[in-house]
Specification:
Helices cover about 50% and strands about 20% of the residues. It has 11 helices and 12 strands. A 5-stranded antiparallel sheet has the order 2-1-5-4-3. Strands 7-9-10-12-11 form a 5-stranded mixed sheet. The chain has a two-stranded antiparallel sheet with strand order 6-8. Helix 5 runs antiparallel to helix 6, helix 7 runs parallel beside helix 8 and helix 8 runs antiparallel to helix 11. It binds adenosine-5'-diphosphate. Adenosine-5'-diphosphate binds next to helix 8 and helix 11.
Amino acid sequence: MTNSLTTDPQATGQQVFHLVASLLDAFDRPLVVADRAGRILFTNLHAQDRLNSPKTTSRLELNLFSDILHTDRKGVVDQLENGEQEVNLQIDSPAGKSRARVRWLPEPDWLVVYVEPVPSQTLANEAEMRQTVQELMQEREITYRNLLAAYLRLQEVNRQKTVFLASAAHELKTPLAVMKGYYDLLLSGSLGKLTERQREMLQESKESCDRLVRLVSMFLNYSALESGKLMLQLRENDLRDCINDLTCRWQDAFQRAKVHLEIKVHPDLPSFKFDYQKVQQCVANLLDNALKHTPAEGCVTMIAEPHFWERRVSEASPSTDRRRDAGMRANSVLVSVTDTGGGIAAEFHQEIFEEFVRVDPSSSGMGLGLAITKRLIQAHRGKVWVDSVVGSGSSFSFLLPINVE
Ligand code: ADP
């Protein structure tokens, strides 16, 4: 774009002035031009903003040294005349602290001042802080990655250990089944009449064998749960059969320990879909614990009854007046095993359902029974819990929904 200048000398001067002024406005930093005496000739828009000087076209209203640089004219001019390329000064402008770089243009004999903001301490601190935070985050990411790698390695080692133990447990299954078969054969008397003493010893051996069988199957279940291989065999079953079948096998063990076992199975227990073996294992775990922790002359009571589980109704239908909708009809079965043993302190009521937790480490067992029971019951979408007071016995209960899919 060309600017046409008129021939009128005064008009031409004005046009040149405007042309230079608009060229300086295009400059991206504050800029002031003055003559050697300090009279302002031009200020671009950035300078007017920064120095908050009025947008004036008159060059003579302000003095560079007294009004902008607030310094002695002679000192600056002397330095420039003595060959200094640039004189740097700190100035306080209304927009904050600034740095003024004064240069001398010999040909028009002008002083050109570039004004730059000085980064404030806070800005510097902020930048420093940002840098530190960034470094910390990088460090954290490295730590996190290392931890993850270590965790994955440990998980793999743990998996290998479980696989090894599971195959060892699997190998025990056949010999134990053979032993159990011979005990049954001997106890049946078909291989010859037994004396009372022989019967007692055989019975005791058979119970130990049963215990080993339970431990092995508990461990196999645990490893199946761990590797996510456990599948429930959900079939329409009768819980009464499941419980009666089990308690028959337990009567002898209770009698021998002189602990009274009372079974109360409600006659109206409905048939519903559940995994017969797995639920039997849960009940067996609870009976086993009750027997282990109840002294002679104590009592263990097992109850199985229909139950109205309100939370399940609320999960299934969030509509109003759920109680009336459900008609308080049983939607689950409650099974509880209560003993008159030593009880469990409240602080262990959650923990004992975790793997390998035993309140009394000297007692027999692996600390797996309740953990497996919990997982199996949860797989049926049920829940298990304990009520217990030290010195007054414990009551372990679980709920099984009767409409589990
Ligand atoms: P374990 O195989 O060691 O019995 P469990 O998971 O079945 O493992 O039980 C965990 C711990 O809970 C037991 O070691 C025992 O301390 C405590 N416990 C379980 N049942 C009872 C009970 N009926 N009375 C007292 N303590 C119990």
